[in-house]
Structures are given as C-alpha cells and as structure tokens.
Amino acid sequence: MSRRPRKTAVPDPAAFPTRSYDLVKEFTIALVVVVLLTVGLAAVFSSPDVKPVTLASWSRADGADFTATAVSELGGTSGTAGYGPPYNHTPGAAQKLGPVGLQSAAGVRIPVDTTNDFVLRPLRDAPEPPAVTAALATWAAAPAARQQAWTRAYSDALAKAGRGAPAKGDYGPVPVLASRLLGLARSGALDGELQAEGRFYQTDYTRPLLFLSDGSYLESLARAEHLGGDQWGMMNETGNFPGQAWLWLYTFWYQIDPFKSSGNADALIWGLMALLSLCLMLAPFIPGVRSVPRWTRVHRLIWRTYYRDQAMERDRRVSGR
Amino acid sequence: MTALPYFYPGARLFAAPIDLNGAGRYVHWGVVQLSVANLVIIGLMLVVFMAALLLPFPRGRGRR
C-alpha cells in the first residue's frame, strides 16, 4: 500500500491575480435576456390551450361512462372509495415502503365518502322532483346489504348494455338517482355542488377531480395526449409543447419492472428517488463517485487555456535548464 | 364570465405564428417514449452545455 503524498502548504489567497467582477451587471443582463426570451417565445409559440374537462362536459360527451361511475360512487366501489388515506380508511389499500406505511402515516386528512359526497348530498341539495325524493327515501330506508345488491346489479346491467338501455331488473331507486345525477351534471350544477366550500372563492377541485378520475373518460383523454403514467406522461405536455423533461428519471422507473407491475410503485419510486437524491448530495463523500471529475477531466477542458499556459511555462523551464 | 371564442374579430391577428396545439408527435425507442418537443429541448440543453465547455472565456479589459 502506497503512502498518500504529504499535503503542500495552502497558498495565501492574496497572492493570486484578481480581476474585477460586476455581479449587478451580470444579473441585469441575465434578467433582460430571460425576459426577452420569454416574451419572444410566448409570442411565437403561445401556450397550451386545452379546454378544461368538467363534470358537465364529461356527462354531455359520455353519459354512459358518467352513469356507470356515479353508480360505483353510490355503491362505494369506485377507485376513490377504495383508495385509502388521505380520503378514507380502506383496509390494505395504503402503499407501503417496506414495513413503513407512508400513505397511512399522515392519516385521513381529506375525508371523502363517495356515496354521500358525490351522489346523495348533491341530489338533496338540488331542487328535488317527487320521484327523486321518493328514491332518496327508499335508499335511506334500505339496509346496507340491499343497497349494495341494487348498485351491483345495476352496474352489471350497465356494463352488459354498453351504451344502450340496461335490461329490466331489481335495481331499487338506483336508476332514478343515477338519472337525476346525470341531469344535474349536464346542467353544470354538479360541478358547483362538489366544489362548494362555503367560501366566496371556490378553488378546491379535489372532489370533482376525484369523481372525474374514477371514470374512464378523463383517462382516455389523457392517454390520447400521451399523459398516461405508462406513457412517460409525467414529462409530457399537451399537443406539441415541451413538457417537464427534467422528470425523465422519475417517470422512467414507472416504465420498467418491478415498479410498473407493483401496487406499491409510488412509494417504491419515491423511496428510490429520495435515495438517489441523497447520493447526489453526498457525492463529494462517496469513494469512487467523488473521483469521477478527476477521471473525466472535464475541468481541464473548461480551464484549457490555464493548463496550456502551465504546460508552456513548464516546457520553458525545462528547456532553459 | 365566458372566454372569448377563437373566431372573435382580430383573433387571427393575435394568434401565435407557430401553433403547437395540434396532435403531439412522439418518438418510440424500446421502452423510451419521448415527445419531439422534449427531444428538441434536450438537444438544445446539450448544445448549451457543450458551448459552455468549449467557448473561450471572454477576456475582460480589467484582467491582469
């Protein structure tokens, strides 16, 4: 094992040559260049202009999908109803990182009861036709098992019927409730009902967005724009606009096994990226990694004039002996 | 409040010369799926990086 060379004495910083540097000038030039670039590029390319998807536009464009989703919300079988924290306490739904339940750790912070919040309350809050009042009363009076049987039977019938009318059966008040909710959605009232926060400005889109994401309409639109999770969607933008290219590594993991087939993918990838970020932060202390700049010698390319002058000086000294 | 329709008077005057709102174009390479727009941006970033490495430093008047 060879001994490490003894460190040479640290030179006096005042002994180095200096040059004046105007930080304010550089900042001003950078600001002006970035402003001109921003304004110029915005004028030439504009910005993404995709119309927002609302419950109203969804129910008008694809009433069958809306109705099927509404029935799953009523029966508590939708994706949101079984998501777990932060929306509800669904046993076994939360993602884990090994033994650590990251999703459960913060608890249910945005409680969502899809049956009441997405279906029954909006129906009650809107002016009710007598048939809807009777259907709501029938629903409230039925035991939970009966309610489940009605929604399950109606969901199956809707799935079999496709875009046509479902076959006749014992669905209880579910068709009346679903039909009324479809009417409210088409009128635009349901968007307002689900956004109502009791404040003047309504900026919380959590509930309408959850309802939308439980259907297949929003996902089909997203996939058409290459925004799906398995389409590297995290780094894409709508149309031909550039997206978030810096998220390439984060979205890359979702494309390969074991992550793409794992129900814990979000937690696993978050953990992996946290570990990699930690490695990047600690690069100067990791043996091998910290030597990469010395091996690649990129610094010699940047400061090539200095190193060339040094070499010439050395050659002159050698030839002058 | 309603948004202005695309065909309001003068819309063509204020429209961007290059419209990127059409159907996106994508490059597929095995598991990799990249939009052409992102590819252009990544290419430009590489060009800027190489320029930062290779362009000589400006020699200021006050340099000693």
Automatic annotation (TrEMBL), chain A:
Transmembrane spans: 27-45, 267-287
Keyword annotations from UniProtKB, A to Z: Membrane, Transmembrane, Transmembrane helix
Protein name from the UniProt record: Uncharacterized protein
High-level lineage: Bacteria, Bacillati, Actinomycetota, Actinomycetes, Kitasatosporales
Automatic annotation (TrEMBL), chain B:
Tree of life domain: Bacteria
Record key words, sorted: Membrane, Transmembrane, Transmembrane helix
Segments traversing the membrane: 36-57
Protein name (record): Uncharacterized protein
Natural source organism: Streptomyces guryensis
